[in-house]
Amino acid sequence: MKKRYDERFKLLVAQQALHEDASLREVARQHGLAHSLVRKWRDNYRQHGVVGLRQKYTHHSAAFKLEVLERMWRDGLSRQQTETLFDIREGGAIGRWERQYHSGGLTALEPKRQGRRPMTKKPPSPAPPPDEERSHEELLEELAYLRAENAYPKKARCLDPGEADDNAGQKAQVVQGLRHEHSLALLLRAAELPRSTFYYQIRALGADDRYAPLKARIRAIYDRHKGRYGYRRITAALRQAGEAINHKVVQRLMQQLGLKSLVRPKRYRAYRGAVGQVAPNVLDRQFQALAPNEKWVTDITEFNVDGQKLYLSPIMDLYNGEIVAYQTSRRPVLSLVKHMLQQAFARLKHSDRPLLHSDQGWHYQHPAYRSLLAGQALTQSMSRKGNCLDNAAMESFFGTLKAEYFHLNRFDTIEQLQQGLDEYVHYYNHERIRLKLKGLSPVQYRTQALSAG
């Protein structure tokens, strides 16, 4: 279904797009919009003002359509430029008019009549002959139909006395319940139900019954993980339990049950410019690692609880996505990352020398931070300026953490949030399965790989 946006939101986006310091792609990425949609709002606002952003429903005449096409051809305009010039809101309309004109001329541009065609009335059925002119078989057939017609509404009221029998599924259920007493053809005639519809509804009712146990298992997994699993992870969990199931079936059943996962918002940024020494981008978006403690990534994110801030600084191992160390603090001070590093170093073997990648936040440019890395002979890597995709693995973890935990719960104090973060990180490392890890949690994957090696 096409999403609609109100006028104030369109105006905000259009004004941002017109600002000389902002690019269209940056504005589109900030609001989660398509680049082409932002460009369209900007051009409409520039050409027509606020009126160009309002919802508009117009039926264009053939003469107007021809005028638009002639102007586009004469001035060599693109379709988008023409849409903006004439304030045509319907996407792809000009291309459709052009094809219609080339195939049928001006007549093909005439608006089509809306709605369904009027149905022709069937001729009235001839009156049945009087009883004395009908055969014995015809009278018996009529009697059988009257009995079926009489039994049908009684059965419908017994099954669901609070509803009228105008639903195809309910009609099929009533007919199915009377088949042992009356002819199917007569019951379908009494219910005014086509034979094909009857068999379709019976199959559908049987399918619902067949999937009832599976729906219960899906809901149990969804509830156990507090709504954090989408259909892919629930499919993987079912397969681990021995259920041979297709992910499309799980997706369809979750839609029927109204179960879905959630989305993710903005993070804290610690960039203050060049306040120290910037390291090269050694990682270069090569987020795959062949062994544990080969490539690490880190960053800082911010939480807000009733105006009070809490900062989280974790280190993730790119081998299996495991959080190897983390630290929280009320302020984003240097000791936050120093204590995190000390925890992480305690996990290293004597021969481990992981690459540690971060953004260009001031903590990671600080001489004390760089000295700690040099003391362990670790290679430092940094994202390019203003390029969050260079540290996409860490950004993805923050998005998952906030979508699955922070935004699903209510916190009264910072201490409550800190305790919950400890529980979630343990859950993330030990219980939460990842599809790219063959349906295992990070710790399960690392343990299995080490035992196999």
Automatic annotation (TrEMBL):
Protein origin, superkingdom: Bacteria
Region entry Disordered, spans: 105-136
Domain Integrase catalytic: 288-450
Alphabetized Pfam families for the sequence: HTH_21, HTH_Tnp_1, rve, rve_2
Naturally occurring in which organism (per UniProt): Halomonas salifodinae
Protein name: IS3 family transposase
